[in-house]
Predict the structure.
Amino acid sequence: MIAETIREFGEKHIRPYIMEWDESQHFPVELFKKMGEMGFMGVLIPEAYGGSGLGYLEYVTVIDEISKIDPSIGLSVAAHNSLCSGHILQFGNEEQKKKYLPKLATAEWIGAWGLTEPNTGSDAMNMLTTAVRDGDEWVLNGAKCWITHGISSNVAVVIVRTGERRDSHGMTTFVIEKGTPGFAGGRKENKLGMRASETTELLFDNCRVPHANILGKEGDGFIQAMKVLDGGRISIAALSLGTARGAYEAALKYAKERQQFDQPIANFQGIAFKLADMKTELEVSELLTMQAADLKNRGQNVTVKSAMAKYYASEVAVRNSVEAVQIFGGYGYTKDFPVEKFYRDSKLCTIGEGTSEIQKLVISRELLKG
């Protein structure tokens, strides 16, 4: 039912504008407000805080179905749900949850989440953005980069350094509202793909934040971020799954319709075998992603499974997109057909929320423990 609702919504409110938003790099805030009304922006938030109160299996379905139509919209829905809202839900106190979650669940407010900095990709413990205590306030200075909704967000959850560099207990999480003096969105990135999903800097210039805005305990920021990313990787796996599915379905349809040598090109083994590989890897991606989602629902450790799902599904998204362009031939290289956009969008899946190399590091470390 959720999948069918999204398909109907997407055909009306997303598909007609895909290339317009992509070409202009327009972040369609009003679309997200509509999705908030439908419950897509607060999937995992309990009903007590104005959310849909659903689980991770339903959440994967939401991201998958949206991303099948437009991965850039799926990316923004994922970042809003699992990173910003998810961090507050997991680590905020009751007062913070009541203040922020109802507005995030309905997309009255758009959320952002900041960990990465210009000098630190995967090396998050070496961050330079600092918060120094001054009475009942903290003074933040520095910059974050690759932030989804860094300009358009109404509230951001950010992890900054309050102790020594490379100390896993030397970072703290703050929730900061738009309009706070010294806090602003910076340069917007001009990207290869996912262009309708806004990606910017976050800048802090003597930004004063009340002590009450700390999420959880002082010094727990990095530990919290790693736990949030465990769930976030399920989001990116679902995003990858939808991207791979969209590319596959477009290629299958085209292969059945495109005639060469008086027959559909799907009849030729060279094309048919590509479709067989695409569908098989798509099914494996879905099973891995749903397995991770099921573990998350049951409150079990998902570090390895979410990393596996994210790693495998993201690589499949790229492979399926490449093969889809190949099946379309010259037409696949034009913007008249959807597969060139899947091709551009897919690559981010192997980079965001931990590169494929980092996923293999996470997996291998867990395997070699003990």
